[in-house]
Amino acid sequence: MDLPDELMRAAKARAATRGESLKDLFERAVATEIGRSRPGRRVSFPLVGSDDPTVTQADIEAADALAQEADDLHQAFG
Fold first, then answer.
1. What radius of gyration do the chain's Cα atoms show?
2. C-alpha angle with apex 48: 27 to 58, nearest 5 degrees?
3. What is the reported pTM?
């Protein structure tokens, strides 16, 4: 397969940002183009990185309070 340099660079960059191989990117792109789905790729955990993955009870309570406030505003103003 012979692709223009600019297209190959863009494909390599896209694969890198998705954390997948160039082969996987091409396989997915071709499968999408011809209308076939391919088996989902395996994911590893955690899906989102964090410098401090600790969640405290206070964090949970703060998130719950914000959600409740949003619900109250939604009910009040539709």
1. 21
2. 160
3. 0.45
